[in-house]
Amino acid sequence: MLFNSLSFLIFFPIVLLIYFIIPRKIRYIWLLIASYYFYMSWNAKYALLLLGSTLITYVAGLVIGYQGQKATCKKLAVAGSLILNFGILFFFKYFDFAFSSIEKVLGKFGVVFETPQLDILLPVGISFYIFQAVGYTIDVYRGKIDAEKNVLRYALFVSFFPQLVAGPIERSTNLLSQLRNVDKIKLWDAKQIQQGAVVMLYGYFMKMILADRIATLVDMVYDPMNYTQYEGFTVLIAAMLFSVQIYCDFAGYTHIAIGAAKIMGFSLMDNFHTPYLAVSVKDFWDRWHISLTTWFKDYLYFPLGGSRKGKIRKYINIFIVFLLSGLWHGAAWHYVVWGVLHGVVRIVGELTLGIREKLYTALHFKRDTFATKMWQVVFTFGLVTALWMFFRGESVHQTLVLMKNMVTVYNPWVLTDGSLFTLGLDAKEWNVMLVSLLILMIIDMSKYKKIDLVAVFMKQNLWFRWGFFYLGIMAVVLFGVYGPQYNAAQFIYFQF
After folding, report:
1. pLDDT band per the 50, 70, 90 thresholds, residue 495
2. Nearest alpha-carbon partner for 256 in 10, 475, 9, 46
3. Mean pLDDT on 81-89
4. Are 347 and 354 contacting, i.e. CB atoms less than 8 angstroms apart?
5. DSSP secondary structure letters along 223-291
6. How far apart are CA 338 and CA 322, in angstroms?
């Protein structure tokens, strides 16, 4: 059940209506039922894995939280939770990839090693909810939160439907704490409902008007059968637009999730903060997929030693984090390469910081000017865009071919001769996309300047708010892209 599908537009109001009228003490039970129905709408069998991960981490939490429990038993409970959960993740997401890679490597040395190809169906959102459940286990062990004794409430924490399949990866200290007080949440709060609805509407704008429209052009250029024919500025534009597409697709989902939760009285963490206004790759990762970045920082980077054990160890830890981040995004080598390259760029940035500082001083380069900030933003966006090409490509080879075609062919005339209109979007579609991009830039700039547009919106007259909201809905209905034969287009991050 996709957020941009008709089924969700029926499902969500029904969930809300019942949620608002049932007794306070059983709200969480109803949300649990709704969450499992939501997840099972893809495949009922998926629920068994979700339930399995839930029970493993629930029991582990009880063992860890039991007063008087020996330290050894607590460590064993943590280890067991991690091994079982990551074992599930490995089997369903990485088994075929791992063994097929081993087979290819051994084959290069003349060793015949036939691996079983199980063709395992990847359960939607498995990386997200397993990371969330594992995070709970570690939080209980660290004493950040008490173990949850109500199994149904804990099950809701793992399966809460707005953020179940694509995040944000919530922390127990935030979401579980709210679920423990669900009977105290004020419902029928007009301000709260309006705020949530506006955030959801913006998410639909990002997804259906921008991301899915851009996808038409990007998919054509990256078509495995025809990508070699595209060169120069055509590839450059497709690469830049994919940067926008993946941002609008993923952030769009996040906004819908945050808005839906807000309507019900829950606050989810912000997962994006103007990532393409970052002034460095490090700054980019502080603004992009924040829930995953902070998860890796808190549960992997710091336990590995962070920067406390010397510079060499620090760089190794950074490399490990980005390697695993790439692998987390997908069981394919182009994801690994994407993650590794980000790690290399981060490390090179750290190593050259002193040299760059001395160079700026020698050249009397002012670093606090608008021009400098703009250059840093443009350079970072260009670098991130280049790395995104490895993420989007079907293989490392395809990406390298496209990069070669992009830098070796100079064809600026495609910008004016109408060639771009042959890539799936006509002049009208381009106009809609460009206007929407302008709106996106204005909103992101406002957010960057710490202007809360939702708060500004809520201060306006009632007639203005309703008029604006109506026009927004009409814009999504009229200009939204619904996929082939008006089927909802899947969110990119659902595959992870």
Report:
1. low
2. 9
3. 94
4. no
5. -TTTGGG--HHHHHHHHHHHHHHHHHHHHHHHHHHHHHHHHTT--PPP--S-GGG-SSHHHHHHHSSHH
6. 9
> Which uninterrupted H or E stretch holds 138?
helix 126-142
Mean pLDDT of 429-437: 95
Residue 158: which of 17, 262, 61 has the closest Cα?
A: 61
**Cα 268 from Cα 256, distance rounded (Å):** 11
Contact between 57 and 133 under an 8 Å Cβ cutoff? The reply is yes
117: left (phi over 0), alpha (psi -120 to 50) or beta: beta
Range 88-125 burial, b when 16+ CB lie within 10 A, else e:
bbeebbbbbbebebeeeeeeeeeeeeeeeeeeeebbbb
Query: Does residue 260 have a pLDDT over 70?
Result: yes
Q: How many beta carbons lie within 10 A of that of residue 359, not counting itself?
A: 11
Residue type, 73: C
CA distance 244 to 177: 34
Determine how many CB atoms are found less than 10 A away from the CB of residue 415. Answer: 12
- The answer on pLDDT for 488 being more than 70 is no
Comparing CA positions, the residue from 302, 260, 291 lying closest to residue 493 is 291
Domain ranges of the chain: 6-188, 192-495
Read off the tokens for 351: 């190593």
Close Cβ partners of 480 (under 8 Å, ≥ 6 residues apart): 4, 204, 208, 209, 212
Q: Which amino acid type is present at position 350?
A: E
Mean of per-residue pLDDT scores for the chain: 90
Separation between Cα atoms, residue 144 and residue 300, nearest integer Å: 17
Residue with tokens 């007259």: 461
pLDDT surpassing 90 at residue 37: yes
Burial of 454 (0-12, 13-18, 19+ CB in 10 A): middle
- Amino acid (1-letter code) at residue 315: Y
Joined tokens for residue 28: 């969480």
488-491 LR contacts (CB < 8 Å, sep 24+): 488/2, 488/4, 488/5, 488/6, 489/2, 489/4, 489/208, 489/212, 489/215, 490/2, 491/2, 491/3, 491/166, 491/207, 491/249, 491/250, 491/252, 491/253
Rg (alpha carbons) of the chain, rounded to whole number: 24
Among residues 425, 404, 396, the alpha carbon closest in space to that of 232 is found at 404
pTM over 0.85: yes
Q: Which of 329, 342, 364, 397 is catalytic?
A: 329
How many angstroms separate the CA atoms of 330 and 325, rounded?
9
Q: Is the pLDDT of residue 484 over 80?
A: no
Calpha distance 489→219 (Å, rounded): 13
Give the position of tokens 């059940």. 1
**334 given a catalytic annotation:** no
